[in-house]
Design goal:
This protein has 167 residues and is of the alpha+beta class. It is built from five helices and six strands, in the order E-E-H-H-E-E-H-E-E-H-H. The N terminus is likely disordered.
Length: 167
């Protein structure tokens, strides 16, 4: 319906274009599986068929997830990394944790920010991250946010090269 409408994407300067369309049937389908308008704090379970759960999780990671790596100063040559998902909804983050545990057998841990607008973070440390990452990127050429995928691949390759030199 609206092509060329500018949106800010969190920035002060308007620099992103948005394509909007409407489809009542599709909208009703999204409502039926658990999505809703103004969902951030009230989102809970989403009815995702098991067959598509890895793809759903990858999309969730691309949109509301993060991956970071660093050297832990407490231990020499200890390269650490974490994979995490964020949500303002505790119910949704608990559901997400349960789905990842069913799919990958990893639990992760949940923290809550101490700010006015609390956000829950489901975080997986290095060993669990590796298992989760294999599930998210289970084959080549999957649709994903390339920037995030490259960040993950670079960290895994760095770790492999780092420990190859040590051994």
């Amino acid at each position: 319906e609206n092509v060329g409408k500018k949106a800010r994407g969190g920035e002060k300067e308007k620099k992103y274009f948005v394509l909007e369309f409407s489809d009542v049937i599709f909208y009703r389908f999204l409502l039926s599986i658990g999505l809703m308008p103004a969902k951030s704090k009230i989102l809970g379970e989403i009815a995702v068929p098991r067959l598509y759960m890895r793809d759903f999780l990858r999309g969730h990671f691309d949109g509301d997830g993060s991956f970071f790596s660093y050297f832990d100063p407490r231990w020499r040559s200890s390269f650490m990394f974490y994979t995490s998902f964020l949500s303002a909804s505790k119910d949704h983050i608990l559901w997400l944790q349960a789905q990842i545990q069913i799919l990958c057998g990893v639990i992760g841990h949940i923290t809550k920010s101490k700010t006015k607008n609390s956000v829950y973070q489901l975080k997986y440390a290095k060993t669990e991250s590796k298992i989760l990452i294999r599930a998210l990127y289970y084959k080549d050429n999957l649709m994903c946010l390339t920037r995030k995928q490259k960040k993950v691949i670079n960290a895994l390759q760095f770790e492999k090269n780092l420990y190859a030199r040590v051994l």
